[in-house]
Amino acid sequence: MAIKGIGGGAEWNVGAVDGTPVAGGGGPSFASALGNQLGALEKSQNAAADASRSLADGTATDPTQAVVAVERAQLSMQLAAQLRTKGTEALQELLRTQV
Length: 99
Prior knowledge:
The protein is mainly α. The protein has one domain. The protein is built from two helices and two strands. Helix 1 (30-56) packs antiparallel against helix 2 (63-96). The longest helix is centred in the last third of the chain and has 34 residues, at 63-96. The mean pLDDT is 82.
């Protein structure tokens, strides 16, 4: 199923649950998109750890950049936690639905 972005942006394709694209899709699956975002979150966390380490040992050239990296990583983690919570709540609601 292809979803057209607002403003004529890129087209998103949602694949099957097992990661294979649906017929006519050809785009990245939800699983690969989620994996990419988790990889970006991990990079953000690692960059924040490196920045805070360099700030602690006095080798940071720009302390504000270190603080910004840590705050960005914190906000990214909070967003990921909220998305996980909302996804879990949605799944629980679906399981409670009577057919």
